[in-house]
Structure formats: C-alpha cells, structure tokens
C-alpha cells in the first residue's frame, strides 16, 4: 500500500511540475496516453524491463524525428514505428512469444 501511495505522490508531483512545460490543457490527454502506451506495447506487455527500454528508445527516436522532420510529424513517425514493430513482433520486442496450442 505504501508503494501505491508513493507512486501517487510521485505522479502528482510530476504532473504538477510538468504542467507548464507541456502547456497542459484538456486535449493533451489523448496524446500523452498514446505516448504512455506505446513504450509498454513495444517493450512487451507485462515486461517491466522491456517497457523501460522501449520508453528510452521511443524518447530518443521521437527527439530525432522532431529534429529531422518537425513537431507534428514526430508524432506520425512514432505512430509509424509503433505499427511497424507490432506488425513484425505482435508480442512486443521483449515479450514472450505466444505458446502454440496443440
């Protein structure tokens, strides 16, 4: 229970401190949820190390795309990489392959 409370406090502080940096308003929820879900799906659902590696790789890729093609197209590039990786490996990069049922 203490770890959930600590996670809530850290999340609240992060949201409060990054509100002005991200120019927070009500329509940011969808894109921030997308950027939260993509690393987890890329790393493999249920794999914490994969989610961390996926998040770091996605952040580096997004910043490189932002530098290369611009702000709006960086989100499109992230979505394109998300689709390509899930087409190649539906379980994610570090997820366990599905067991074949016989």
What would a concise description of this structure say?
With 102 residues, the protein is mostly helical.
Question: Would you give an account of this structure?
Answer:
The chain is mostly helical and 102 residues long. It has a domain at 28-88. The protein is 72% helix and 0% strand. Helix 2 (28-43) packs across helix 3 and helix 3 packs across helix 4 (71-88). The longest helix has 22 residues, at 48-69. The radius of gyration is 16 Å and the shape is flat. The model has no long low-confidence stretch (mean pLDDT 83).
Blueprint of the fold:
Blueprint: H1 2-18, H2 28-43, H3 48-69, H4 71-88
Helix pairs in contact: 2-3, 3-4
Secondary structure: number of strands: 0
SSE ordering? HHHH
Can you tell me the residue ranges where pLDDT is under 50 for at least 5 consecutive residues?
Answer: none
Number of helices: 4
How many strands, which pairing sense, and closed or not: the largest β-sheet?
Answer: none
Radius of gyration: 16 Å
Into which percentage range does the β-strand content fall? under 5%
Secondary structure class reads mainly alpha
Distance between the termini: 41 Å
